[in-house]
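Ticket 4471: requesting a sanity check on a complex prediction with adenosine-5'-triphosphate. Repro inputs:
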Amino acid sequence: MAPRLEARSLVKRFGPITAVDHISLKVEAGEVLGFLGPNGAGKTTTMKMLTGFLDPSEGEAYVGGVSVADDPERAKRQIGYLPEGAPAYGDMTPRGFLTFAAETRGLTGAARDAAVARAVHALSLDRVIDQTIETLSKGFRRRVGLAQAILHDPDVLILDEPTDGLDPNQKHDVRNLIDGMRKDKAIIVSTHILEEVEAVCTRVVLIDRGRIVFDGTPAEFRGRAEGAGTLRVILPADAVEDAVEQFEDLDEVSAMDRHPTPDGRVRFTLTGDDRIALINRVTGVIDGAGWPADELELDAGRLDEVFRALTSRETDHQDSNQGQEVRA
Ligand SMILES: Nc1ncnc2c1ncn2[C@@H]1O[C@H](COP(=O)(O)OP(=O)(O)OP(=O)(O)O)[C@@H](O)[C@H]1O
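Returned structure tokens:
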């Protein structure tokens, strides 16, 4: 069966700038793909090509096997898209805007009203349903955009920074909503918020300068951090000799380092591939010997460290684009 969503070597050039440089992806139902990258990496441009809002310079996008270029209407019917920023039509109310959006997707009569009611309920918009969109808070405007994206219960959802501008409670609600829809949809979420990746995503794709530099699970992403999977523990000086001997004997420990602490004890740093086995065995040895251990902590890796290591600095990026503005 065709993947729910597929990018085949998508390229987008704006004059001298290559915003997207041969991006290939397949996303299946059940996946929430976190699309990460620094400002200007090409996330929005990729999403616009996937949804048929921007023609690629090269490559193709497919939705459920339907070519976005050859049959845009059929492809778009299967997609819900939340663009960056607020919805247009600020002078409309959410009720008017969602009714209009449902009609543009071919829904009429009772089916249209049911779709609008479902989306209004899912995004808790009841309170503001008859207030003009331009008078809504940023968070509510974002939710109106999200309601519009899920109106027709599409197979594929492409959400450009869905939690941008939301307060922590609203972020939590939107993440729950995404999680609830995951089972039967393929979902792409672009975000700058690294914690969001672990909260909702089953997969991480990191892009830099229009190219994919990482594609894997959030755990694999975190695992790329320097020091990920290391265990640190402080032991008293008189335990060191025994501890070195016993830790060296453990198969789970692939490397060991030790440094004196200012108060005369010793900090061990133990590394191993299997973090859970490492912590179990090392704590077993410490318990067995009855050593008074301190500051026992496992470093699972920091997401922002990996992000920084794999992507270029904004200043490098601007240099490469020479600050030029080119129209599509
Ligand atoms: N219409 C356009 N004309 C010229 N350059 C453009 C145009 N649209 C996008 N770009 C450039 O393409 C590159 C990628 O932009 P894009 O908006 O896709 O990045 P992004 O990853 O979504 O960034 P952000 O996180 O800031 O939203 C940038 O260098 C941007 O300036």
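Notes from triage: Residues 230-299 form a domain with the Alpha-Beta Plaits fold (CATH 3.30.70.2030). Leaving this open until the requester confirms.
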